Amino acid sequence: MIEVKNIARSYGKRQVLKDVSLTAKPKEQVAIIGRNGCGKSTLLQVLAGIEKPLKGEISIFSQNALKNNKVFRDFVGYLPQENPLIDELSVKDNINMWSGRFGKPEKWLVDEFALEDMLNKKVATLSGGMKRRTAIACSLVLRPPILIMDEPTAALDIYFKQEIREFCKTFRENNGIIIMATHDELEIEESSKVYVMENGVLTLLRDDNE
Amino acid sequence: MNKHTLQFLYLEFKRSFVILLHSFLAFLVLMFLVVVAFIGVTFAAKSAENYAKIHVGVVLPPDNQSRSLKLMTSMIENRESTSKIAKISYLGQEEAYEKIRDGSLDAAIIIGDTFVNDVMTGINTPAIVLIPEESILNVDVFHELIDDGVSLIKTGESAIYSVTECSFVKPMIVERYQMENFLTQLYLQKAISLETMYKRNKITAFGNTSIQIYYASIAICILISFLGIIFSGLYNEQNKVIAKKLKLYGLGEIKIAAIRVFVISVIVLILFLLFSFGMDALIKCMGKGDFPVETDILEKALDEKDTVMYLKNPAKWGIWIIMSVSIAVFFHTILSISGNVWTNVMILIQSVFYMILCGGSIFPSAFLPKALDSISTLLPFGYWRSAVAILWEKKLENGMELALKLSFFIFAMVIILILRQFLSLYQRRKD
Predict the structure, then answer these.
(1) For A57-71, how does the pLDDT look when each residue is reduced to its tens digit (9 = 90+)?
(2) How big is the A-B interface in CB pairs under 8 Å?
(3) Strand ranges (E), B139-260
(4) Distance to chain B for A188, nearest Cα, Å
(5) What pLDDT, on a 0 to 100 scale, did the predictor assign at position B49?
(6) ipTM above 0.90 for this complex
(7) How many Å lie between the alpha carbon of A42 and the closest alpha carbon of chain B?
(8) Across the beta sheet with A55-60, what order do the strands follow?
(9) Cα–Cα distance for residue pair B310/A130, rounded to 1 Å
(10) CB of B394 within 8 Å of any CB in chain A?
(11) At a CB cut-off of 8 Å and minimum separation 6, what does B251 contact?
């Protein structure tokens, strides 16, 4: 379970996050919606441990993540809006960069994302969907139980979108937690919780558990 | 070192080689242009002013006898054989050395204080002839004339002293056939010892290096300096996202910076050796071809037993490693200035161009205005050039001084990076 309480973050004089709180349990998919530039990405970066909040608490499986970066690394996989891939390197090298392994990536990862034929291809030569697939694989190398995704299906065709939605479903069924920022209606529909971000304030719009 | 650090180190090496390969063609073009420029500049510098009169400075002793000396030199100056090839001016000793170094004087003759008295009393007195190491044709002719003249004098003197000594120092009855051997022996002794009567000093605006080595080392430094443009691929904006994520894996900015500097240092060192082998081969080809290039370095290069590189000297390797690190730190400092990689590349190109112009790369720094020359001593290009030039030196001279200068430059760059890091942290906290 991930619990976020009263997170605040600002850039200069502009307060991007104001007392943001949310919770997510295993098997839940949480969608965060809002206008462009409202602070969704900033919130996800804070939840992923990449940005530090000015105040607040983040508890991941009862551990204080803000006091120990290792918690973020071990429990959270982060898929940013821009693919965190190095174009000059191959798919295999990009995955190994996050796993710390040398040689072929783990079989389950290769099979899950059908990467066998792409392993030695340079990322620069891949299509948008394949890059996204590789990026998701990179975020899951350490098998985190929580996946934070920033617009996972943006600019993808419907087939890749379907692939990713199916992956998310499988991930949830395996007790995973997904927190995503999205504009996709189907993804919002499939989420058990929906929050809306406006003027730095996060408001619960819908909770299917209630 | 954790597994992510090792993996990142391995991947940065891989990325660097991939980026280098992608830019290989562009780099080949640059290499071609630099090599052509090198050949052109060395040839032009060598052939320049072949038929102009040489300017000879004469330094007379600062006393009353200089008047009679000046009369003598004026007489020699006005002879057609001398006036055709040289114009003579009179100046002080320090001024003469300075002008030989900066190239405004082609040769200088320094006559000692007791010259006239010594000549009158039959004592051989030293005369100092200063000739630049890399001299134009007419200076070479002048040099040869002096050599011939000195040889003639030495021969005459040796003969006279031999006879004198024979008659005054060795009073004995000697058979005629023995006399011949005896005189020959004495003559040889005198002739050889008279070598010390005339000193040769070579002063050059290029320091202790020949034109070929000077411009070859500059060519190598220019090629290496422009490698920074290629390494900018390691700093592109896409990687900011990755950099943020890597922090969670124990790879903060400082660690990444250290890894990048290490990777760039290793690659620069490898490429420096490759460029140097190539430049050395080119110099050898120039010597074996029809180019009128005659320098002592060429004699070494063409001697099969003598390896030009003298790679076995560990002190040289130490300097080259420090040089590579200083280049890497320089690249990293500039390529990480701002978030925009193209801005950083522009700054790098401008810095390199400035260093090339002001660091004595086109014209030796001795020819530049003093202000520019002073600024150039703060820039690393001159140190890199010196470090490259030691490739061709048999003995390492002033190695420690060069190593210290390079180390100081690295230290200065690290201080700048640390200050920048503090500034960035302060800015983030303010935000």
Answers:
(1) 999 998 888 888 888
(2) 62
(3) 198-201
(4) 26
(5) 42
(6) no
(7) 13
(8) A14-24, A2-11, A55-60, A63-64
(9) 53
(10) no
(11) B4, B5, B8, B259
C-alpha dihedral over B1, A144, A68, A40, to 10 degrees?
A: 120
Q: How far apart are CA B381 and CA A139, in angstroms?
A: 44
Q: Are A97 and B238 a contacting pair at CB < 8 A?
A: no
B243 touching chain A per CB within 8 A = no
The CA distance from B325 to B262, in Å, is 7
Provide the chain B residues 214-233 that lie in CB contact (below 8 A) with chain A: 233
Backbone angles phi, psi at A67, to 5 degrees: -95, -10
Cβ burial B205-215 (10 Å sphere, 16+ → b, else e): bbbebbbbbbb
Would you say residue B235 has pLDDT above 90?
no
Chain A residue numbers with beta carbons less than 8 Å from the beta carbon of B238 are 82, 86-87
Residue A88 and residue B238: Cβ atoms within 8 Å?
A: no
User: Minimal Cα–Cα distance from A106 to chain B, Å?
Assistant: 16
**Using a CB-CB distance cutoff of 8 angstroms, which residues of chain A are in contact with residue B239?**
86
Task: Return the half-sphere exposure (C-beta side, CA atoms, 13 A cut-off) of residue B234.
Answer: 31
Entry pTM:
0.70
Check B18 against A97: CB less than 8 A apart.
no
C-alpha to C-alpha distance for A68 and B297, rounded to whole angstroms: 63
Nearest chain A residue (CA) to B252: A50
Q: What are phi and psi of B293, to 5 degrees?
A: -105, 115
In A146-209, where does DSSP find H-type helix?
A: 158-173, 185-190
> What CATH number belongs to A2-84+144-207?
3.40.50.300
Residue with tokens 């011949």: B180
User: Which residues, including other chains, have CB under 8 Å from residue B389's CB and lie 6 or more apart?
Assistant: B209, B213, B214, B217
Domain ranges of chain A: 2-84+144-207
CB within 8 A of A38, min separation 6: which ones? Answer: A197, A198, A199, A200
Q: Check if B1 contacts A (Cβ < 8 Å).
A: no
Rounded to the nearest 5°, which phi and psi values hold at A32? -115, 120
Average pLDDT, chain B: 75
Interface contact flag, B241 A82, Cβ < 8 Å: yes
CA of A149 vs chain B CAs: smallest distance (Å): 13
Which is more confident, A205 or B213? A205
